[in-house]
Queue: 2 jobs
Job 1
Amino acid sequence: MIIVVGGGPAGMMAAIRAGYSNREIILIDKNFYLGRKLLLTGGGRCNLTNTCSTEELIGHFSKTGNFLRDAFKAFASKELLSFFEERGLKFKVEKNGCVFTIDNKASSVRDILANELKKLNVKILFNQEVQKLLIDKEKKVVLGAALTSGNAVLGEHVILATGGVSYKETGSTGDGIRMAEEIGHKIVPLRPGLSALNVEENYPKLLEGLSFEKARLTFTALNKKIFSKEGTLLFTGTGISGPATLALSAKIADALAEDKKIKLQIDFLPDMDFNTAEKYLIRAFNNAKRKNVKNILKSFVPERLADTILELSNIFHGKDSNIITVEERKKILSFLKNFTFSISKDVPFDKAQITRGGVSIKDIDPKTMESKKIKGLYFAGEMIDIDAECGGFNLQGAFSTGFLAGKSAATN
Ligand SMILES: Cc1cc2nc3c(=O)[nH]c(=O)nc-3n(C[C@H](O)[C@H](O)[C@H](O)COP(=O)(O)OP(=O)(O)OC[C@H]3O[C@@H](n4cnc5c(N)ncnc54)[C@H](O)[C@@H]3O)c2cc1C
């Protein structure tokens, strides 16, 4: 019997691949349904993989990406897309090679996996939580899994695919990482990845929900630029989010962990240098005759940002543009080109899409995903110390490691 713990993308793919061997497979998940986090991916559209080459795929992972070479050799994006295509999924390739379902529904991906499990007669235990692994400590062999209900499931192979610790409401609460540690595996400290960032100031509350298709984010420490990126920016109630923020969040979290004080400067007009933006503003103020300053600013930025800028600059919203002083204009300009926030120390796990850290790759055989410490135990997905940028890479990592773990368990 092969026991798979976790019904996310990694666990489902592991159970499917193992299921092709005609072995008895049991999949256990603590939720009432499969792929709870998968349904949230890509804003509900599921960016399931990326069309880039395997070498590029590895490059999109952080330092531990090389560990995935064998998993990608066994099952990379080409094989993943064939798997889904053969089972009726239609998909489209968007910007930067990101692959989405054509119907924009993550549920289409989940349903194909669930149907395949059914077809293969994989037994699924829903609403059952694995509490600990049963191990023969002397022989260092896995014997099965003990459930919180008091029951146990016995099997000669266990694949742990319980995910990380972000979005805990989806069931990913780090149980597998804890269980792996309890039986001697090294755990690389868990940190949030692809996360929104909080700021110390209160104004994001006024800007919550505003999104900017193109803004430049520049992060500084001790007045020195450390990271900078242009992209879509979204204000949350407590800070910022959006692709550019998520992409830089891991580096920011690491810098904060080194006790650096980090400032963020937002340039809302990244296509104009400071002088051009100033000329634009002067022309707009002069040409507008007796228009009030807020109405002019609204042609540059959304109304709520215009209000906030005027508030922070101490300028009356209804003031005529032709009596704005040079000093006031410079203040407005500095908010448009260089709106500064202090990044708060806590990078929120509850807003992180992924978990960095997890079971150390040093304790896992990359050719099989089997533990180097306990025979018959395999790992797959986000609970391993692997993490990547946005772009479908994390799901591909989960599917590939799941596939290899399932294949190895079925053939060992
Ligand atoms: C909002 C959001 C959007 C995302 N969008 C994308 C995207 O578009 N593209 C992309 O590549 N990645 C995306 N990701 C990341 C991606 O979802 C994860 O990397 C992926 O789901 C990891 O798969 P997994 O199977 O390892 O773990 P999970 O998907 O976390 O699955 C783990 C499963 O294990 C179960 N489990 C946990 N503990 C136990 C236990 N003790 N007993 C029984 N069952 C247990 C859980 O209930 C859960 O179902 C996104 C993540 C989030 C949060």
Job 2
Amino acid sequence: MRIHAAVLRAGDGPFVVEQVDIADPGPGQVLVRIAAVGFCHTDVLPRDKGFPAQPPVIAGHEGAGVVEALGPGVTEPPVGSHVLLSFDHCGACENCLDGHPAYCRSFVQRNLTGTGIVSGGQPVTDAEGRPVASRWFGQSSFATHALVDVHNTVAVDPDLPLELLAPLGCGIQTGAGSILLALGVHAGARVVVFGAGGVGLSAVMAARIAGAATVVAVDLHENRLDLAQQLGATHVLLGSGDDVPRQLRKITEGGADYALDTTGVPEVIRDGVDSLRARGTIGLVGAQSRDLVLGPAALATGRNVRGILEGDAVPRRFLPQLIELWRQGRFPFDRLVRIYPLSEINTAERDAASGVTIKPVLLPGS
Ligand SMILES: NC(=O)c1ccc[n+]([C@@H]2O[C@H](COP(=O)([O-])OP(=O)(O)OC[C@H]3O[C@@H](n4cnc5c(N)ncnc54)[C@H](O)[C@@H]3O)[C@@H](O)[C@H]2O)c1
Ligand SMILES: [Zn+2]
Ligand SMILES: [Zn+2]
């Protein structure tokens, strides 16, 4: 079938919307017509030479759409279902069976190589018949249609607005899940969130849902800090200021119980560790490109540093909970979203990088 997709052709080049051919769904797959897809910072990682996925690749891993066809043997979700797409996982390894699919044994292969675990080549080929990596997060949804592994579909009520819900599948789930599931923030806790992008602001909202008494957002952009305050941060702090850990220990009256880093900047993480109280925990979700170096006594007081993938969520369990909280007005993540046609994907990337837009959502049909 002929579809349109935004292909990243070179690490230093733009996304190019072009016509490509997509195969019929194989065993364990469904064909989804993509109504909307969020743009997550992770979608630009194939630009880095050392990253597992490399161009030419179709990125996009916060898809939302309607099931159009089922692969052999697939009965669920039925044709016509509205689905949100999340990360892929096998469903059968120890961590999947334990209810921690983000730590699936084949997570990297399935989600981050761009080529996934497929026999018989890539399902998408370009106009010259050359293969394009099209298994990014088991979906490659910067396109009008995507072949999706059944495991990463979450069926939702057809009345819900897919263009707002699309980013739940990764960034928003990661921020909220890190607070509510992975760190298990408790009522009365003191929480610091580094980075007020889509992930960090979702964490801020989740910390308030958990009943945290103090929620501090740290960022370099004033406009993002303003929004953090509107979404529930009790305090905000410019990350460019002097002695950030000392200021944070003061605000939290001795140190944070929990911190979450969404910046991936080693110096920020080190400040985050220094702003924890004894036995406090910092979760790391930001993509890091440099080594993290901590001082010799940084962890001596029982402090913990913990890596977190996808908020440690089970998407089919967690996304409906987030949708219900949104319906109740307690999790207004839609305030982060700005909509672009898929043809404007390069503008969306620039706006996200400059801080103008927090969560771009692309509409392939417009
Ligand atoms: N681990 C996971 O499962 C997972 C899932 C989704 C996203 N991510 C990663 O999480 C990170 C955040 O994603 P996002 O969509 O929120 O990105 P984003 O770029 O919108 O947000 C990052 C924020 O960090 C701020 N920042 C950068 N340097 C800073 C500094 N020195 N001090 C204070 N603030 C600083 C930026 O101003 C920005 O607002 C990305 O690296 C992304 O790849 C990880
Ligand atoms: Zn698994
Ligand atoms: Zn993501």
